[in-house]
Automatic annotation (TrEMBL):
One Pfam match: Polyketide_cyc2
InterPro entries: Polyketide_cyclase/dehydratase, START-like_dom_sf
Origin: domain of life: Bacteria
SUPFAM superfamilies named in the record: Bet v1-like (SSF55961)
Listed CDD domains: SRPBCC
UniProt name for this protein: Cyclase
Amino acid sequence: MEWTGARYADRPTVEVRTWIDASPATVWALVSDIGLMPDMSAELRSVTWLDGAAGPAVGARFVGRSEHEALGKWETTSHVIECEPESVFAWAVQDPADPSAVWRFRLSPRDGGTELSEWMQLGPGRSGLSLAIDRMPDKEQKIVFVRLREFERGITATLAQIKKRAEA
């Protein structure tokens, strides 16, 4: 990832891709099972469906509890905004009209397996990162850059875990 000097209001994004030697159905079963995600994340501690939901569907909500040594502990409610089995699973964090982040898995059949990408966008809604920027506005671009690098490392590790499980 290159230094872009992006500001939070720019809605900066990160995307990582991998190829998995497994069918889209096999990969979908993993990416759409939010209960597996804490085992594959350095920050996410737990995830629970809300409102009686048992799985992903547009409009379904889940709460995630996370922890980061510099940012502390926090809880967010996410709203599923896209859900097409074996194709795309996306959610908006906090307010779907003004999310603090958007996350998306995309699956595509390729070369007898599945190309899987995980993408995330910061903002435009306020988040814990906004609080750090409020305290040090002159360091906004560095704060955003460092956080995007953390997300890039985390996404890379998550995709490696999904690949390992799908190919097992």
